[in-house]
Every structure is written in C-alpha cells, then in structure tokens.
Amino acid sequence: MSSQASFLKHSPAEKRRVLEAHRAGRADWLTVAANNGISRSMAYRIANSGRVDDLPRGGARAGSVKVTQEVKDTLESYLNDNCTYTMET
C-alpha cells in the first residue's frame, strides 16, 4: 500500500456530461452524475464552478519566490561580463 492516499480521478468527459446536463436544465442531472460514478458533492462542485479540467497542483506561489526572473537575469549578466566572480556567504 502506498504512503499517499489514492483518489479516484474522474475524466473531463465524465465531468463534462454532468455539467452539460446541469446547464441544459435537466431534472436528472444528479442521476447523470451517479451513472458516471461521480458523487453528489462532486457533482454540485462541478455545477457551481463550471470547470471540468483539474487545476494544476503544487509549484511555487508568487509570494514565496525569493529569486525572481529579473534577479536571475541580472546575475547571469554579471557572470557574462566577468566570469571570475565567485559566490561567498
């Protein structure tokens, strides 16, 4: 058994079927969700957000990045000007 919990991922096509049924005003849109193996709470989440694709997970947030691209470009230009620079702490 893996150390991380495995979650059942629903395909965008399954989510799209639920969203289209909801947007069409069908009274049985929750039945469409159940037939596609999507829980009631997930069906409501899809209907409220209107999104069928998963959002990207992880990565660095802009507020916590300490070295921006501008700083990297400046350091690279310093090294290109004089390659004998060394980093000291």
TrEMBL record:
Top-level taxonomic group: Eukaryota
Identification of the protein by name: HTH psq-type domain-containing protein
